[in-house]
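quick one, 160 residues, struct below
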Amino acid sequence: MNIYIWTGTFFYGNIIILLIIFLILIDKKRLKELIPVGLFIGVENYTAEMLGLYWGYWEYPLKTPGYPEVTIISSLIYFPIIAMLFCQYLSNSKIKNTILIGFFVTYNMVIEIITLKTTKLFIYKRGMNLLIALIMYIGAYVLIILFRYFYSRLKYSKGS
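---
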């Protein structure tokens, strides 16, 4: 299969599969609570993407029509959906949350490795490597937990 066809199929296939999983698993009654988490992680991820591109840590080498939206789709659809699913399953148990972080980070790392090794979606540059990606993913999930904590405190302090 042509590398460009595989890249598009892999990227958009992942988005479609994730949307289906999201629609099946998401607790629709909690969407009001989960959407701010998705918006937060979307802004955080888009900012990290732009900084990484600007500083040259990675690049998106595909210059063909249809591929400039990779950053936007991953930042505004892919990662917010994953963040909302992650947040939905958080509990008061530190052990359960640690296992949950491990599961989600492993999922992200597997997709990252498959993407790097089999597609032309992005390439690492200037010292970026899988260890740094792992640290970034762990940091993102810790940020989700912190955002959820502070957002819920703010919401309850206003009497919502």
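The chain has a mean pLDDT of 87.
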